[in-house]
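Contributing new records

If you add data, match the layout below exactly. Sequence lines come first and carry their own label; structure lines follow with theirs. Keep one chain per record. Anything else will be rejected by the validation script.
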Amino acid sequence: YALYSSECMLVVCHDEAYLQTKWVKNEYSRFLKLVKDDEKQTDSIAIAFTDKPIEKLPGRDGKIQGIDLNKLGALGKVVDFVDGHTPAAKAKRAAEAAAKARAAQEQQRQFEEQRKALEEQQRLIAEQLEKMKNAPTQTSPSAELSDDELFEKMERIRAEKERRKKEEEIKSKPWLAPDYPTLKHFNKSDFEIVGTELKKYRGNSSDCKIPIGITSIGKWAFAKCKNLTSIIIPNNVITICEYAFSGCTKLTSVISDNGIVNIGWGAFDGCKNLANIIIPNSVTSISRNMFSACTSLVNLSIPNSVVSIGDNAFYHCANLKNVTIPDSVTSIGSDAFGGCSKLESVTFKNTNGWKVSENSDMSNATDVTITDDPTQNADFLKSTYRNYYWHRYDN
């Protein structure tokens, strides 16, 4: 039973001779068959060895992950391997893949909209030209214009409309501006950048534009930047690491786009003036302490991409009043809304199957009845079951 119910297999051995032992070979051969039959993931088996490097198993083509137990950090690699195949990790990977698929669909949708808009503009220009050509000569000065002049005039009108549309788009997505900084052209004294990771912000400006091309904002990169009031995060950024903006007490504005997938622990911890933030619908998890002590937050919209809300995620958001938990969320950590004394309305889009437990492994869990009463739900999260772990089970 253990072989079929386990998510991964770690073969621990001294040398390759051990792999030929009959009962050992029988066990990993059965697991490899499950992999071959797509009942297990292709990377769900690894070898931990103490002698010469082992990267292959008899009966399997290609290399598999090998962990040298004699090397520093081997235990961490073993833990990472096991953690990477838990149900939660699988759910996170599935959610990330779904988020990327949604982003690709959105990009395709925008492309189609732009194509249709261009076709419509061309149709309107042709229609207007035809009307101007057929208009009475005595009342229309434009009738004296040649076809080329009429077309030129319509092109100027179209170009002006496009310019205004672009200006509006740049307001919501500033990185589309032609003079926006990139990895090739940015103020090097303001940033410490390694590869495509922004390691540290060294500037003193109240407004910061992260260069296009950055894919990751490192740990503590902007932490305790006391002058920072606004930050623009372009759509290349995928990861915001732990405590990246922690303690930025004057930060009031964060402009970002759908592209960010991972936001680490405490990323905006202590940003007490951050009153509004739009969580991108590519984010799959609101991690531990992500918005703790953001005391100016009042309303919160959690996107449908989010699967889990971590421990203390919104701890001591003292002015938070309204929260909607989307259908995608299946777990809420302990004290996620602890200290949210003004929380008065929590709407669950899926009220079925919720259980609570004092233990993170959900042992001894009990049913909790979620209703359409947002006030009662708020009391559950901030008071009655404040220190409990929540999980929703699909029937």
